[in-house]
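ok here's the first one, seq then struct tokens
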Amino acid sequence: MSIKLYVEGGGDSKALTTDCKRGFRKFFEKAGLAGRMPRIRACGDRRNAYDDFKTALKNGGEVPILLVDAEDPFTAGSSWEHLRNRVGDGWDRPDGASNDHCHLMVQVMESWFLADRSALESFYGQGFQPSALPPNPRLEQVRKADVLRGLARATRSLKTKKKPYRKGSDSFEILGRIDPSRVESVAPSAKLLLDVLRAGGPTS
């Protein structure tokens, strides 16, 4: 049975939705999932992703998996607990959903970029300042604001035609360039997601 990943991101325009799906597809292909790729649905905002996931779970058919940003430090015992307790979410785990059905990009997708600074340097070119990025090797403990601030500072003095980092199409192009093995080596949440996908779907 095929897997469909309901992802927070894209959705604001057809072009951005396409960029989002392409970025994730390239990331997963490099993670060894070519030939057994999940289908990717770019849902836009996080609430849409949750609602679309619940509908898919209820309807049956493809195996749905939810992937959203944690937004805040992860302290709960499971992703579902985090999303239930987080102010602004308050989401209950739907009937029939296991822990393997829900995954977090702790704390924000851009955190993954920090694991592969060589990919960032290659993308931005001359003037990129890697020293401006947060130094903490434990990606899941780097605050969302520090990640985004670090990317903005690292790209503010570029000597190429690239513009300073901004969320959007650049985000998904970089996602497609980074090395998944580097990400999962320092982000347990990413490794958990990839392990579930490699296993063919949720098992618990």
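and now the second one, same deal
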Amino acid sequence: MSAPANRLVSVEVDDSIGRGPSPEAEHERNTAIYDLIEDNRFALTNGMNGPYHLILSTQEGRLVLDVRDEAQRPMMAFGLSLTPFRRIVRDYFQICDSYYEAIKLGTPAQIETVDMARRGLHNEGSEILMERLKGKVDTDMDTARRLFTLICALVWRG
């Protein structure tokens, strides 16, 4: 049985990005990749159907998304500037730190408040990503959230 056409079936992180700087960071990357592959809607807007293999790399400060077919033939490659994500990723990491502290020491109300802020930032980052993918990739919010999580995991210095 073949995989549905408009989805990612594999995600690879190129040597230009390298391994995570710590076992925790590497674990976060692997978890983000697993979650993305498990459930996604990803379709190239140029009409080329998948399923797709995605290779992520960096080049000149850009995240390069190299989309390939089942035989690993190139279908589309494009770069995304990470500049629009810098503030949101920084804020997201700060609120995640606050969330972990709240879990240890906070009241349920404090945990819920910090978690709502964390989810709000995650949604904002996902919306920016969807906007940046417009005209190249058609995806849904859940997949954009998983891709944003992966981008965060790739830049996390753990």
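notes on #2: The longest helix spans residues 108-133. The chain has a mean pLDDT of 87.
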